[in-house]
Design brief:
Strand content: 25-35%
GO molecular function: (S)-2-hydroxyglutarate dehydrogenase activity
Helix content: 10-25%
CATH class of the largest domain: Alpha Beta
Pfam families: DAO (PF01266)
CATH topology of the largest domain: D-Amino Acid Oxidase, Chain A, domain 2
Distance between the termini: 40 Å
Structural class: alpha+beta
InterPro entries: FAD-dep_OxRdtase, FAD/NAD-bd_sf
Organism: Strigomonas culicis
Number of domains: 2
Domain FAD dependent oxidoreductase: 6-261
Strand order of the largest sheet: 5-4-3-14-15
Shape: elongated
Order of helices and strands: EHEHEEEEHEEEEEHHHHEEEEEH
């Protein structure tokens, strides 16, 4: 890395970028993350017995199953949007990584035994809106251009310029994201409102503290989400010559961010070990089907690990985050 200490030094690297000083990182790059996922998918599905895919599933509840030799977790649920039939998953241990729905799944999974990281009081959904440069203007930068981060604005990166190599969309220069608090769990546009979700956010422990103390910033970021002109003004702080006619709509994403008891955004990995509230005595037949007996006493060891918050950028750092999760799970579950 090199410190660029003046506008002149910045212009030697990126002639159109404005700044007082900058950090130049020539090794920084980008990848097509969809291609990364396809490659990982190919490796995972090489053994179909170990990986179940195209399995749409909404967990209804978690039940502990005590057999003569071990304890298991039975997840009962249904396909998304269907009333039946019930689908079940039986496992020795369960790790849930459910993003926007992590709080709902964690609540269903049972009693929390212990935590790794801060307690997450509520999960907020933040919508990140992106624009992109029109094809004629994509050559004005050749590298990633980021502002100095402001952690008060939800997602900490801020509006930045990113040349992409996406197979599906082709080469683009995307601009974003914004960081607007969504009014629905999956609030992919500005006008989606879920009253139950909003009330849960407002009245949860830590939630109302966060909303009250950051009200001004919340309104600013929401206004930028719906105002193309204000979004453009943020982008022009980095590249002043970009005009309204140079950008077009691109896409939106929604990120789940945990809120702790003090109303602060969680910035680190947070996990909870849990155990189903109900445990049954049972036996497994030759087909691994559960033959239910009478209700057993509550067990004393956790069987489930719920990931409640993952640090950003979770895609970029996904393998490192996965290593941390697996290590914590392996140590506690005695794998």
């Amino acid at each position: 890395m090199t410190i660029l200490r003046s506008q002149e030094e910045i212009h030697q690297k990126e002639p159109h970028v404005r700044g007082v000083a900058a950090v130049w990182s020539p090794q920084t790059g980008i990848t097509d993350f969809a291609a990364v996922c396809r490659h990982m998918f190919k490796q995972l599905t090489a053994n179909p017995k170990l990986f179940n895919y195209q399995f749409r599933y909404e967990a209804q509840d978690f039940v502990g199953v005590k057999t003569p030799s071990e304890e298991l977790v039975l997840i009962r649920g249904r396909e998304s949007g269907h009333l039946g039939p019930e689908k079940t998953v039986l496992a020795k241990n369960v790790i849930t990584c459910c993003g926007l729905c992590n709080d709902e799944v964690a609540a269903k999974s049972g009693t929390v035994f212990e935590r790794v990281g801060k307690r997450i009081a509520q999960t907020y959904s933040f919508r990140g809106r992106y624009y992109e440069l029109i094809p004629e203007k994509r050559s004005i930068i050749t590298s990633h251009v980021y502002p100095c981060p402001d952690y008060r604005k939800g997602m900490s990166v801020g509006v930045h310029f990113t040349p992409t190599i996406n197979e599906g969309r082709g080469r683009q220069v995307i601009i974003g994201p914004g960081s607007a608090l969504a009014f629905a769990r999956e609030g992919y546009n500005s006008y989606m409102i879920d009253i139950e979700y909003c009330l849960n956010c407002a009245f949860s422990k830590g939630g109302w503290v966060s909303l009250f103390s950051n009200m001004n910033m919340i309104f600013q970021m929401y206004y930028m989400d719906i105002s193309r002109a204000l979004f453009l003004s943020e982008a022009q702080k980095l590249i002043p010559e970009v005009k309204a006619s140079d950008i077009e709509d691109s896409f939106c994403g929604v990120q789940a961010i945990g809120i702790d008891d003090a109303g602060m955004l969680a910035k680190d990995l947070s996990m909870e070990f849990a155990r189903p509230r109900t445990t049954i005595n049972a036996e497994l037949n030759k087909n691994c089907e559960v033959i239910v007996g009478r209700t057993a006493l509550e067990g004393v060891k956790p069987l489930i690990l719920n990931v409640r918050n993952a640090p950003s950028p979770a895609a970029t750092a996904c393998m490192s985050i996965a290593e941390d999760i697996v290590k914590v799970a392996g140590d506690r579950f005695k794998w």
